[in-house]
From TrEMBL:
GO terms for biological process: translation. Belongs to the bacterial ribosomal protein bL35 family. InterPro entries: Ribosomal_bL35, Ribosomal_bL35-like, Ribosomal_bL35_CS, Ribosomal_bL35_sf. This is Large ribosomal subunit protein bL35. It comes from the Bacteria. GO terms for molecular function: structural constituent of ribosome. NCBIfam families: rpmI_bact. Pfam families: Ribosomal_L35p. Residues 1-52 are annotated as: Disordered. PROSITE patterns: RIBOSOMAL_L35. The keyword Ribonucleoprotein applies. Residues 23-39 have a biased composition (Basic residues). One of its GO terms (cellular component) is cytosolic large ribosomal subunit.
Length: 64
């Protein structure tokens, strides 16, 4: 039986923390940044944690 493959799109979008939670990036920080204020761009840089209800699904997709 071949190896199980992780979902590459999920593996690229989320990072696993040491406590087992997942960090994600906020959308809106790639282009068209000249319209956005410095405060808005700074807040977009913060990486929130994924909601607890969805963590299990994403971990199964990553085979963690």
């Amino acid at each position: 039986m071949p190896k199980m493959k992780s979902n590459k799109s999920v593996a690229a979008r989320f990072k696993l923390t040491g406590s087992g939670q997942l960090k994600r990036n906020r959308p809106g920080k790639r282009h068209k940044l000249s319209k956005k204020s410095s405060q808005q761009k700074r807040n977009l840089s913060k990486q929130p944690l994924v909601d607890q209800g969805q963590v299990g699904m994403y971990k199964r997709m990553m085979f963690v």
